[in-house]
Write a sequence for this structure.
């Protein structure tokens, strides 16, 4: 019975997690607009002598679907217009104004930089996957090197000649959160993993082992690292 229970969990958990993630994204994208669309659809039903309360579930489903479609086509239209000179000028002007507003400019610039890095083909968001000592010298964890630490932090380091790297240490099984470490290059060991493989490993709490790691284990290594 225990074996059957584990087999069932292995089959159901990936599906359940996938559904949960998609539900979260749909709710996140549609909730801000949902009351307005629901009100509009309710008015349409009432105009046709139908009671909106009786069709509440249907109204919610249709409303979310309509919102997602509008968002999808809206993004496509904005992308098309963004390539035109006039609209590009408006975007640059808006960007310049946002960077002048106190308090807002910090958040706006941070979000803008992150989005640009994620969708840019020229700039890599994560330079490499590493093994870093954490939370002590006796243990290791997976880290994502995102670049050099700011020069203000470099100069305040007790050994400024040793370059500090910004290393994001994600949590498991929710790698969207984590800690940011500042570590010297000498403490970082590069791992022969892609970003996708690293996140699969984290999401599965170590259950999903990348094929490259399996090959390294066959060769007698605990984990594949560069010299």
């Amino acid at each position: 019975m225990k074996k059957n229970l584990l087999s069932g969990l292995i089959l159901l958990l990936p599906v359940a997690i996938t559904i949960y993630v998609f539900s979260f994204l749909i709710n996140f994208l549609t909730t801000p607009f949902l009351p307005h669309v629901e009100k509009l659809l309710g008015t349409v039903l009432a105009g046709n002598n139908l009671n909106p309360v009786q069709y509440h579930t249907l109204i919610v489903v249709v409303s979310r679907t309509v919102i997602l479609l509008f968002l999808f086509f809206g993004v496509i239209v904005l992308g098309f217009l963004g390539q035109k000179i006039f609209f590009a000028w408006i975007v640059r002007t808006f960007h310049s104004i946002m960077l002048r507003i106190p308090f807002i400019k910090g958040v706006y610039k941070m979000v803008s930089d992150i989005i640009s890095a994620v969708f840019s083909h020229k700039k890599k968001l994560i330079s490499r996957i590493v093994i870093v000592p954490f939370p002590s010298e006796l243990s290791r964890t997976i880290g994502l090197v995102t670049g050099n630490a700011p020069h203000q932090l470099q100069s305040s380091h007790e050994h400024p000649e040793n370059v500090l790297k910004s290393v994001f240490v994600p949590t498991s099984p929710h790698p969207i959160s984590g800690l940011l470490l500042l570590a010297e290059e000498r403490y970082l060991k590069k791992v022969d993993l892609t970003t996708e493989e690293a996140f699969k490993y984290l999401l599965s709490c170590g259950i999903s082992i990348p094929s490259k790691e399996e090959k390294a284990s066959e060769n007698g290594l605990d984990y594949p690292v560069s010299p």
Observations:
- The first strand starts at residue 128 and ends at 133.
- The chain has two domains: 32-116, 124-204.
- Confidence is low (pLDDT under 50) at residues 218-227.
- DSSP finds eight helices and five strands in the chain.
